[in-house]
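Bench log. Compound arrived from synthesis this morning; before running ITC I wanted a structural hypothesis for how D-xylitol-5-phosphate sits in the protein. Inputs:
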Amino acid sequence: MKIKIAPSILSADFSKLALELKRVKQAGADLIHVDVMDGHFVPNITIGPVVVKFMRKCTPLALDVHLMIQNPAKFVGAFVNAGSDMITVHIETISLKELQAIAKGLKKSKVKLGISLNPGTPLAKIKPALELVDFVLVMSVNPGFGGQAFIPGAIKKISQLRAIFTKDIAVDGGINAQTAKLVKQAGANVLIAGSYIFGAKNIKQAINSLR
Ligand code: DX5
Ligand code: ZN
């Protein structure tokens, strides 16, 4: 499968977002990962639809919006209208019934739907959701902050998932050149990285080293 690299904008300099978007595009990024946090599901607050709307104007790359919020069903519409290309919701925050409704709505707008699970959530939890989604996002840190260390338990989860799921598997948290190798071997093909990419002196080299 083609490896796709998604810089997480959380680690960018928010005072020059347009420039940061241009920089990662030039360095070869495939999509832009956008972390939305509400201070309830995770202990941090980041950005909402209004920022996504302006990011949309600044990059031709797909915006991959990761909703780390309670009651995501209530906000999916606003993020679609803001210009999201992909929306990920967490299994810990949603019922299967709500997910079915979201999947149906997104089909019409051609926005791709992903399901994510925290490191502490067993793979079995997302199994009923797999037929509804376009991709799975495996968390390899507890969501809330960039710059955390990779939790190795993600590797087994990815390989078990790869055995039953043929679409995109993304992995998010603590990805660098070393952990990238491990998750690719396990079967992940979308690598999300924040601090490793934006903290690098040479962003292009960092992205290439993940590929
Ligand atoms: C964590 C976020 C991640 C984060 C990754 O809650 O969902 O997307 O920005 O950052 P790094 O790559 O620094 O772990
Ligand atoms: Zn994320």
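What the model suggests: The pocket of zinc ion (ligand 2) is lined by residues 8, 33, 35, 66, 172, 192 (CB under 6 Å). The domain at 4-210 is CATH 3.20.20.70 (TIM Barrel).
ITC booked for Thursday regardless.
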